[in-house]
Amino acid sequence: MVRLLALAFLIFLCPELSRAYDIVLISGGPALRSHERFKVNTHDRYWGNFVDSALARVKELRKEFGPDDKITWLVFRPGYIRRGIEEKQDYLKILEERGQLHGLTPIYFDDKEQLFTLLRRNGSPEKPLIARLEYYGHSNKKCWMFDYSNRVDGGAIEPLVVHVDDLENISGSSFTPNAMCVSYGCHSGEEFSQRWRMVVGRPMVGAVGKTDYSAGGMPKLSEGKGGSWVY
């Protein structure tokens, strides 16, 4: 009884202990090879860059925090459907099978409005606050680009990107006070990260320069460009 009273008192003093938290990983979509094959700097020779990198991160997080931490994996569905049609593969089925190996079932979104809805949290068990958010996908300094060179070719066309002017749709109240955010897309640290911090109120690490997914696993800064991670 004494221990129960002590625990109840501790929870009263530290209400965050009684709230559920979530780690959110976002996988953007791949480019179409038919749009990329004639470019000098081609993208996404391999369809699963943003899938495998997110799942590699899951392995790291499980080791760091234990197997019971809640991880939510958000995946931009249309890009994998169209790449699958192009290459005659069911990439949704494949990525779901890979997710199952890590105890994860992808939650799909089809546009940015659905993503904003998934990121709205109130701290309840059904909608826990976000303690960590990481983005794996194409980007430029102003946008997360879910459909780069798929339906669009590097352009900021609604509703396939999250532009810095869209960040007002993401509330800081959906995050824990000390939430960690990272964007592993190219050039995010040149503007997107700073605007995220201003609008959402949480720091975001981003790349100055390009990021490289070609080696598998976690993305790295591209070599020889003087890139760096900033927030």
Short account of what is shown:
With 231 residues, the protein is of the alpha/beta class. Helix content is 30%, strand content 23%.
Number of helices: 7
State the total count of DSSP E strands.
12
**Strand percentage:** 15-25%
The end-to-end distance, rounded to whole angstroms, is 47 Å
**Spatial arrangement of strands, main beta sheet:** 3-2-1-4-8-9-12
CATH topology: Rossmann fold
Give start-end ranges of low-pLDDT stretches. Answer: 1-19, 152-156
Which CATH-level-2 architecture? 3-Layer(aba) Sandwich
| N to C succession of SSEs | HEHHEHHEHEEEEEHEEEE
| Biggest sheet architecture | 7 strands, mixed
- Determine the structural class based on helices, strands and strand pairing: alpha/beta
Radius of gyration: 18 Å
How many separate domains make up the residues?
1
Mean pLDDT: 85
Per CATH, the class reads Alpha Beta
User: Which overall shape is indicated by the principal axes computed on the Cα atoms?
Assistant: globular
Q: Helix content range of the residues, please?
A: 25-40%
